[in-house]
Amino acid sequence: MKQYSYFPGCSAESTGLGLGMSTHAIAAPLDIELHEIEDWNCCGSTPYGSLDEESAIVVAARNLALAEKAGFDIVTPCSSCHVTLEKANEYLKAHPATLARVNKALAVANLHYGGTLRVRHVVDILVNDVKPECIAGKVTNTLEGLKVAPYYGCQLVRPQYGLDDTELPVTLDRLVKSTGATAVDFPLKAKCCGGSLTLSEEDKVLGLMHKLLESAATSGAQCLVTPCPLCQTNLDAYQSRVNSKFITKYNIPVLYITQLIGLALGIDAEKLGLNTCIVSPRAVLEQIKKKVAA
Asked: CA angle, 177 as apex, 236 and 286 as ends, to 5°?
C-alpha cells in the first residue's frame, strides 16, 4: 500500500467536487492510502502571490510543514495547488534565509518545515508509482470503443514544475489507454482554456474554449478528460455560452481523469461524482453499460 499525505485543495471540496470524490474512490482499488492533512489551509493559489511573495510562501509552507510532520510526501489532485506547493517547496530548499524567516512565522503555530518533502500530483502518482499497466490489470469495465480527448491544460506540463513535455505530453494519453479507451489525436491538448480570466475577460476566454471544443469534436472525441478543476469548470460550465456565442452545438462531457479510471474499475458513477457534471455524461455511461452487457 502506497501512502501519501493528501492535500485536497479548495476546488476538490467545492466547485471541483467530482475530482475529490473520484480521487478518493480510486485510491483503495489501486493500493493507495491517502492521509488527509489535518487542518490544511488554502495553498494560496491567487494573484496575492504576485503582491507579497514571501507571505504567500508562508501560506503554502504551513501545509508542507503539516505534511512533513505526518511523515509522507504530499500529493494533490489539483494542478494549481501542485504548482503553488511545489514552487514554495523548491524556493525554500534553494533559499535557506527565506526558509529561516518562514519557519519563524510558522513557529507561532508550533510548526517547522525542514524541507524534506516531495510535492506530487495525482497524475504523477498514477503514472509513475501505480503505473498504467497496473491500472489496466485492474480494469473490470473496459472502456474499449470510447474516444477520449486528453486535455492537460497549462499547469500540469509547464516548466519548471511540469510533469511532461510542454507541447506533446503523453501521461494522460497513457492513463486513458490503460482504461481500454482510445486517446484521440488532440492537437490543442496543452493549450490554455483561459483559466481564471473567465470572469474578467469572458469573450476572449470563450474564444479559447471554442477552439478547444472544436478541436476535440473534430478529433471525434466523445468526452474530454482533464486533471484540472479550473479547466473542467470552464469547459463544462461555459460550454453552453460557447454554443450561444459561436452558434455551435457542442455537447461534450468533461470528466476528470480519475473519474474515467474509476469507471474502468467498475466504481459507481455517483461515487465518482459524475452527477456533478453540467454537460451530462449519460451517453458515455450508456455506451459503457452496453459494452459491459455485451
From this structure: 55
